[in-house]
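Propose amino acids for all 355 sites.
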C-alpha cells in the first residue's frame, strides 16, 4: 500500500497529542508559579487566557514540527537506508556497502551499526564465494571417479572380454571407488574440523612410536616402488597433544611423500628435540613444486601440477593445515621443482613427562 498506513497516522496523532499535553502541563505550571509570586489583575488574566492558550498551542506545534523534522533527518532516513540494504542482503546480494552517516548527527551510533553491517556483508560475501568454489570443486572431483566407474563398468559388460582385461577393468573400478570414498571421508573430516565439531583432547604420548607406526603402515607401497626409507627418529620423545588428530598429519605427509616419489626414490623422516620443541621433517625426492604452488598447497582442492591430479584430491594438506592450526603447532615447506619437498612440523614437548 502506497503512503502511510492508518496505524502510522494514528500513532503520529497520538504522539502529537501526548507532546501537546506535556508542553501544556509544563507551561501551565510555569505560569501558575509566576502568577502566584506576582500581583496581576484577574480580569487581565481572563482576557488574555485565550491568547495564552493559542501561544501554547503554537509553541507546541513548532516544537513538535522541529522534533518531527529532526527525527525524519537524523533517525528515520538512516534507518530506512539500513533496512533497504539489509533487505538486499537477505535476498543474497552481498555486494552491499552502506555509506556512513556524515551530514547529520550520528544518533543511536548509526555509523557503528553501518560499519557492523558492512563488515558482516563482506564476511558473508567471502563465505558465499568459498561455498560456491567448494561446491564447484567437489562436483569436479566427484565427476572423475564416477566417470571411471561408469566407463569401466560398461566395458565389463562386454561378453567377449578377455579375463586379463576383465581383471584390469575391475581393478580400475575398485581404485576409482576407493578414490571416491577417500574424497568423501576427507570432506567430512575437513567439514568437522572447520566447524570446530572436533575438539583436541591433549594427553602425553610417545611421538617417536607414533611416527614409526604411521610410517610402517605405508610399507607395502614403498616396497612396491622400491623407495629407500631413511629415518633418524630420536627415541622416547613425548608431547602433550591429541594423538588421533596428529596421526592425520603424519599419514597425509607420508602418503604424499610416497605418492609423488618415483620408482627407486628416497624418503627421509627425522625427529629431534631441541629447547622443548619436537621437530618432525618429512623429505622426498619426488617431483617437488614451484614457489607459486608452494604458496597455495594448503588451500582446499589446490593441485599445482595437473599431471599429478589423479594421485590426490587436494584435500590432504588442507586437513593437515587445519589440524596444525587447531593444535597450535607450526608447519613449513621447502621445495624445488624436480628435486623434491621437505615438510617440517614443530610441536611443543611435554617437559613434565619422564623418559
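Proposal:
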Amino acid at each position: 500500500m502506497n503512503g502511510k498506513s492508518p496505524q502510522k497516522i494514528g500513532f503520529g496523532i497520538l504522539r502529537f497529542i501526548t507532546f501537546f499535553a506535556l508542553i501544556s502541563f509544563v507551561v501551565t505550571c510555569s505560569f501558575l508559579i509566576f502568577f502566584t509570586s506576582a500581583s496581576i489583575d484577574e480580569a487581565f488574566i481572563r482576557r488574555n487566557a485565550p491568547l495564552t492558550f493559542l501561544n501554547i498551542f503554537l509553541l507546541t506545534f513548532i516544537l513538535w514540527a522541529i522534533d518531527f523534522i529532526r527525527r525524519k533527518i537524523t533517525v528515520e532516513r538512516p534507518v530506512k537506508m539500513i533496512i533497504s540494504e539489509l533487505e538486499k542482503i537477505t535476498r543474497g546480494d552481498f555486494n552491499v556497502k552502506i555509506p556512513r552517516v556524515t551530514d547529520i548527527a550520528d544518533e543511536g551510533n548509526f555509523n557503528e551499526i553501518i560499519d557492523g553491517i558492512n563488515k558482516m556483508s563482506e564476511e558473508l560475501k567471502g563465505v558465499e564465494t568459498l561455498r560456491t568454489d567448494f561446491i564447484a570443486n567437489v562436483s569436479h572431483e566427484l565427476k572423475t571417479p564416477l566417470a571411471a566407474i561408469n566407463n569401466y563398468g560398461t566395458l565389463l559388460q562386454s561378453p567377449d572380454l578377455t579375463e586379463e582385461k576383465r581383471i584390469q577393468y575391475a581393478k580400475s573400478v575398485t581404485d576409482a571407488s576407493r578414490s571416491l570414498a577417500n574424497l568423501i571421508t576427507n570432506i567430512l573430516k575437513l567439514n568437522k574440523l572447520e566447524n570446530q565439531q572436533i575438539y583436541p583432547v591433549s594427553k602425553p604420548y610417545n611421538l617417536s612410536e607414533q611416527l614409526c607406526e604411521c610410517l610402517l603402515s605405508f610399507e607395502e607401497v614403498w616396497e612396491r616402488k622400491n623407495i629407500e626409507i631413511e629415518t633418524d627418529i630420536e627415541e622416547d620423545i613425548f608431547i602433550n597433544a591429541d594423538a588421533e588428530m596428529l596421526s592425520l598429519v603424519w599419514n597425509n605427509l607420508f602418503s604424499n611423500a610416497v605418492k609423488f616419489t618415483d620408482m627407486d626414490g628416497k624418503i627421509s623422516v627425522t625427529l629431534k628435540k631441541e629447547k622443548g620443541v619436537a621437530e618432525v621433517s618429512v623429505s622426498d625426492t619426488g617431483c617437488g613444486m614451484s614457489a607459486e604452488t608452494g604458496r597455495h598447497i594448503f588451500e582446499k582442492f589446490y593441485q599445482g601440477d595437473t599431471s599429478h591430479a589423479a594421485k590426490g584430491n587436494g584435500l590432504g594438506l588442507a586437513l593437515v593445515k587445519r589440524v596444525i592450526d587447531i593444535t597450535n603447532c607450526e608447519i613449513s615447506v621447502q621445495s624445488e621443482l624436480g628435486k623434491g619437498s621437505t615438510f617440517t612440523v614443530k610441536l611443543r614437548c611435554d617437559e613434565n613427562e619422564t623418559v
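Residues 288 and 340 are 4 Å apart (CA to CA). The mean pLDDT is 78.
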